[in-house]
Design goal:
The structure is a homodimer of 430-residue chains.
Chain A: E1 2-5, H1 11-20, H2 30-43, H3 45-56, H4 60-63, E2 66-67, H5 69-77, H6 81-99, E3 106-109, E4 115-122, E5 125-129, H7 138-151, E6 155-159, H8 169-178, E7 182-184, H9 188-197, E8 207-209, H10 214-223, E9 228-229, E10 237-242, H11 248-259, E11 266-271, H12 274-290, H13 294-304, E12 306-309, H14 316-323, E13 327-331, H15 334-343, E14 349-352, H16 358-363, E15 389-396, H17 399-415, H18 419-426
Parallel strand pairs in A: 1-12, 5-6, 5-8, 6-7, 8-9, 10-11, 10-13, 11-12, 13-14
Antiparallel strand pairs in A: 2-7, 3-4, 4-15
Helix pairs in contact in A: 2-3, 2-9, 2-10, 5-8, 6-7, 6-8, 7-8, 9-10, 11-12, 11-13, 12-13, 17-18
Family (chains A, B): Belongs to the histidinol dehydrogenase family.
Active site (chains A, B): 326 (proton acceptor), 327 (proton acceptor)
GO molecular function, one term (chains A, B): NAD binding
């Protein structure tokens, strides 16, 4: 854990180092992934069966390629009622937030008499990757599938590895709630390749989203352009801006809620009170010892955790913008939270006030928890319905409007040395 | 040129072949590009100077690294008045169309008392690549810069190679109109690397857009994630749906207006009249012989051109959707154009009616001419202001709303095995 003080003479350099800290894997899996993609493209289902036997110790041909809708419905029915209600509340709120995101079509005539517009359509099919093992989160299933569903995508395909045959029943229940159309027991780069290129069994999709390990992330990167993808995702991160009026154990738990995701997660506290910072650190140490996810939290906190003392909390905001964090918690009084938020330019999602822990946004608030990491909030946004849609622009001219603006097009085509462009306009000018 | 008839028994297979036709370069420049990026990252300006001397025969240190705003203003002043007016009309219409695209912020309280919303901000800096040589189009300068400007981007950086020192004065004039802040005389993969990673001279940007050759395209693909990019672009294409009431020479010019871009461009005509098709082909042959861009048009038309006879123009639309073309011209009566367009799902931009040649959209109509190619209109959209912006979601709960939805978050965190998530919510529940 690093402790920085903005009033120290060496602060600027230390903060630069924090900003430029590289937490993402440097392991180069690109050649392996390229080989897997090429083989799935060439051999299709046979390659999927072979990789799945090798990596997941699972025989697709003998034990079944897919998980049925019926099995998902049964998993849903078997859930403890409180958990079922929680999933349904989450789904309902995620649906509502994303429905309000649906973009408006445009169709208007401007002063030159030109009809102009844009129309949105959903993609035909979306693929959602769901990891097996540690990161198999039902909340991620909802966060990826529901925006596609709200966008109007007619075919939603889930890919998930089932190592040794094991499936997570809560993930299946979430797939049931989300309304997934197909689930294939395939994981890794081979699953992404199948979604992008298609096989005999798996028809190709148009957009692929969802978290995954380094192989999955690299496969998405390599297949970007063949299909649309959500984003290049890295380890999770949180920045908390908190004053001394917070209870230290509350802020400690907020910081640790990211640290428990992965040893490469990052939690950073900005505060204007050194004693409060000490108390938070003490509470973090205590909670790391007492919670089941302590080992992961300790690894993350020791390697990447940071406390930054600022003279005034307002001074934290430009520093936050440099970090462009995935999650930013402004744990101050409501009015001050609004004032600080008004100055924020770069963050994936912002949590305002003392009663808004980041974890509420992971599950039930409604906004998407798939957010840009690794300073990418400088230029990218959380997952939304528009990631599963595309916009077609359109225009219509008549003789009068073409007469008004056509000659300018002819002049520009001439300047660019494109005579057929000029001719196609000139042919219609009287 | 291929001629297909939808009523032929072999049509489905022939059309599949057309859809899957690969026009994009297979040349693997990825290793070369990776080496260039690594060297620019390590050596900065020295690498830029060296590559520019080698590839563009231009000595940056001796002859100047940048083109000044003053030089651009002078190029603008020196333009022929008709061309200057045409550029200004184009700029004004592009600005107006894109200003209407600006997304709305959201900030509302839902029935559970949760405050929810999303706020859009421009990125801090955008880089626009402008090729030298054949594809140095002032219209592309406007189409890339103006959306960034309308989005509110405060720093816009142009990168353009000046082989042997040569610059295109109309491109400089367009940069003046657009309001570019910096122009560097650097091209190729090294220009994209400088924009993404920065050098001593060139501060890094957040988003990189603009067309380029295979090296530029591959550099953007490799640096996607370090910066945002517009899209993976391929050769241009047009699909024209036309009945026999059109004049054949008019439709011929429309088809050739894409064919003249590049030998790998593609022009496809759907019509319900074989005699009309014959007349269009005859006119194409004639225009290829008479226009200055004939050699490029001939190469494109011979290799990739197609005429498809359909029993009824309505039958063309599902086939168009399979092609998901960059440009779709519906050259029929206005009412029928609307009816056909209502059925279109996948196209970059659609041109409605007999008085709307595609070329009008390349220059002055207002919608962006940077559009998805190579069937990517299935999942992606033309360049827009939102490519230069990003959305920050936000939420605020109070005691009552946290009491309403917090327990569900605790239940889900428990099911996912994330105790610090649960604790951070529980800490705030009374």
């Amino acid at each position: 854990m690093r402790r920085l003080d903005a009033s120290d003479p060496g602060f600027a350099a230390e903060f630069d180092a924090l900003v430029n800290d590289r937490r993402e894997s440097d392991s180069d899996v690109s050649a392996d992934v390229a080989a897997i993609i090429a083989r799935v493209k060439a051999e299709g289902d046979a390659a999927l069966a072979d990789y799945t036997a090798k990596f997941d110790r699972f025989d697709l041909d003998a034990s079944g390629w897919s998980i049925s809708k019926q099995e998902c419905a049964e998993a849903y029915d078997a859930l403890a009622p409180a958990l079922r209600d929680a999933l349904n509340l989450a789904a309902e709120r995620i649906r509502a937030y994303h429905a309000a995101q649906l973009p408006q079509d445009r169709d208007y005539r401007d002063t030159a008499g030109v009809r102009l517009g844009a129309r949105w359509n959903a993609v035909d099919a979306a693929g959602v990757y769901v990891p097996g093992g540690r990161a198999a989160y039902p909340s991620s299933v909802l966060m990826n599938i529901l925006p596609a569903k709200v966008a109007g995508v007619e075919r939603i395909v889930m890919m998930t590895p089932t190592p040794g045959g094991e499936v997570n029943p809560v993930v299946m229940a979430a797939a049931h709630i989300g309304g997934v159309d197909e689930i294939w027991r395939v994981g890794g780069a081979q699953a992404i390749a199948a979604l992008a290129h298609g096989t005999n069994r798996v028809a190709p999709v148009d957009v692929v989203t969802g978290p995954g390990n380094a192989w999955v992330a690299e496969a998405k990167r390599q297949l970007y352009g063949v299909v649309g993808i959500d984003m290049v995702a890295g380890p999770s991160e949180i920045v908390v801006v908190a004053d001394a009026k917070n209870e230290p154990h509350v802020i400690a738990a907020d910081l640790l809620s990211q640290a428990e995701h992965d040893p490469t997660s990052q939690s950073i506290l900005f505060t204007d009170d050194g004693d409060f910072a000490d108390a938070v650190v003490e509470n973090i140490e205590h909670q790391i010892r007492s919670l089941a996810s302590g080992a992961t939290m300790r690894a993350s906190w020791v390697a990447y955790g940071a406390i930054i003392i600022v003279p005034n909390l307002t001074d934290a905001i430009p520093l936050c913008d440099r970090l462009a964090p995935e999650h930013l918690e402004l744990a101050v009084d409501a009015a001050q939270a609004d004032a600080l938020f008004a100055k924020v330019r770069h963050a994936g999602s912002v949590f305002l006030g003392r009663q808004t822990p980041e974890a509420i946004g992971d599950y039930v608030a409604g906004p998407n928890h798939v957010l840009p990491t690794g300073r990418r909030a400088r230029f990218s946004s959380g997952l939304s319905v528009t990631d599963f849609m595309k916009r077609t622009s359109f225009l219509a001219l008549d003789e009068a409007s073409l007469a008004a603006i056509g000659p300018a097009a002819v002049a520009l085509a001439g300047a660019e040395g494109l005579p057929a462009h000029a001719l196609s306009v000139q042919n219609r000018l009287k």
